[in-house]
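Q: A reviewer asked whether we had any structural model of the full assembly, not just the individual parts. We don't, so I'm hoping you can provide one. Inputs are below.
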Amino acid sequence: MTSTLPEARSTPTASNPLEGYLALCKDACDGELERLYGPGDGGPNPLRELILDYPLRGGKALRPALSIAMCLGLGGYLEAILPTAATLELYHNAFLIHDDIEDESWSRRGKPTLHIDHGIPIAVNVGDAMLSLSLQPLLDNVERVGLGPALRILRAIAKMTRLTVDGQALELDWVRSNTWRLDDGDYLKMVELKTSWYSFITPLQAGAIAAGAPLERMTELESLGRHLGAAFQITDDLLNLRADPEEYGKEIGGDLWEGKRTLMLLHALRCAEPNDCDRAVQILSRRRPGSDGELGLSDLLDRLAVRGELSRAGQAEIVARLQGLQPSESKSLNDIRWLYELMVSGGSLKHARDVAAGHAREAATVLASLDWLPPSQHRDALVDLVDYVNGRTR
Amino acid sequence: MTSTLPEARSTPTASNPLEGYLALCKDACDGELERLYGPGDGGPNPLRELILDYPLRGGKALRPALSIAMCLGLGGYLEAILPTAATLELYHNAFLIHDDIEDESWSRRGKPTLHIDHGIPIAVNVGDAMLSLSLQPLLDNVERVGLGPALRILRAIAKMTRLTVDGQALELDWVRSNTWRLDDGDYLKMVELKTSWYSFITPLQAGAIAAGAPLERMTELESLGRHLGAAFQITDDLLNLRADPEEYGKEIGGDLWEGKRTLMLLHALRCAEPNDCDRAVQILSRRRPGSDGELGLSDLLDRLAVRGELSRAGQAEIVARLQGLQPSESKSLNDIRWLYELMVSGGSLKHARDVAAGHAREAATVLASLDWLPPSQHRDALVDLVDYVNGRTR
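A: Here is a predicted structure for the entire assembly that you could use as a starting point for your response.
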């Protein structure tokens, strides 16, 4: 058992200490994923290769790093947290695969997305396999960290999934019902559910539990993770607006096309003149472009007809649905540009940057107050991570 | 705590004892799903409504019935197995939602599939939420059945998901590599992994564990579930060939379009004259029809262009991919009819029916030999279920 990070398998060319620390965590996590989901004795296994595809493309492995730093920082063993860290990373990558399908994304970590490479059916399947396979390592924790901590980690992850689903539901509901009378507090409550638990609070808490930390530490870690999550998500939403149109396959303002309720969009709607506000709400009510929205019905109709699969009743119903859908107008590129300008002229981007920076400062304050986390390279890495989250828009 | 089934909430009009028993189990399972995933205190929740959509449409709830019958038949309590039974049903329905996307199915239980009703993004999301939410009830088992049995059930479900994923991988690999030199034994090994654990062995074992059955009962239940799974899957594959073209939205021989290696297809290939075999293998190498296979690239290209999302480099790559794909020929309706005729003339359908009946008889023999399962309405229901699985093609 070791309470330090091993040497990197590949030699990292880290330009700063945090990059070096992240590379070591990523390396340890990749090794664990290969141990858990590599080909094993059964020889080549196409599904298992695809399970490892996204994780092994790179990425920061932020969640494993948070878990590992908290566990080692509290004197725990790397072996005690690795299966959980790898599981959190697997969850995250499963959601990335499915998000890429949902968002029609073309590129992920410099390569075509999994559904572009292998088709939607296989990409749905691989994500499901990843979610399904995440249970075993969490059960193996009983042998690694003991029954009590293993059950606490399982409960933490069950809570995480429940709150994440609730956060996604809330966001979905706002878009579908075209709700917009929402303030910063509403947005932050949604982001805590959707982002903070899954990406920050649970990784931090799992690391502490694996190191044997008592229950009373959990509240402060929840506060740290909540602020980090808010700063991270607001910054992510700001970056989404700034994607370089010439960057390979990157979407410009995909959030605006989807109608996502970001902090700056909600701010712009609240601050806009009544006429502009009406126009913005009108635009947001329009669907994303495509032959018939996201249903792909006309395409489906063609394929089913070729395969002779459709009864006359079924065909009539699809045609009726198509006719019902066509009148609805879709957003145009000009609509998106106009929404963007509304946010810029209303100072909404600046407001969002300020709110994100405020939460990053709060996170730094909470972290500085954790007197039960002794000075170490792991604590330093957490401090650097807070700075990193705050600095991503600069 | 009760060891009998409650009265049905709706009055079932059961034409035979098994139907009545299944209706009671389905009712108990639906009630548990509503308790677990209903709106709760938070008011209407769109994602939670969609989680309950497929389960509440009907269906036989075969897996919960197997769990409940085994648990009550061994003197266990309904409360001890209900959360697990509901979780197995939730898993199953999550996979149905995602299978419907993958298979481009139009209808499920008499209504449009979830992705037709709400679009692919939401359908992917709802299935993920169902898979993610299945952990909590299994943890709540600690309070219901005690720590030991709760952990055994968790381990049984982790094993089930691992083997199911391996079975899907094997099937996928056969289709993608156009493998066909496979015999009944190869097919049955794949089906044991893909179907038997998930639909039969694990539900039976979980029911027994919840009733406090000792470890040594598991082997016989594995044998019972293995034979039931084989009979069930072969019959399912036979039914797939027989779908009524005038039935609402039902696919004719969808398995043939996908190139699935069924027992009868493999038998037909083994028994065919060399010329016919070559032609069949050639047909199987062709993709399913559609503008560009399953990738939907031309459609995607249109949408991304409208949204101004694509760089010149990205656009060039999609176009190159489209050109690379177009030469590949797709299966025609005549191809599918010819494959079907090959199976009929080679006696492959009869062979498959015989093998299925053989496994159903084996299952009945194993069930009859379980001297530790006392006579009861629950044991009778299991006997009837074996008959039902065997009788579905008659």
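A: Points you may want to mention in the reply: Chain B has one domain: 17-267+331-391. Confidence is low (pLDDT under 50) at residues 245-250, 291-295 of chain B.
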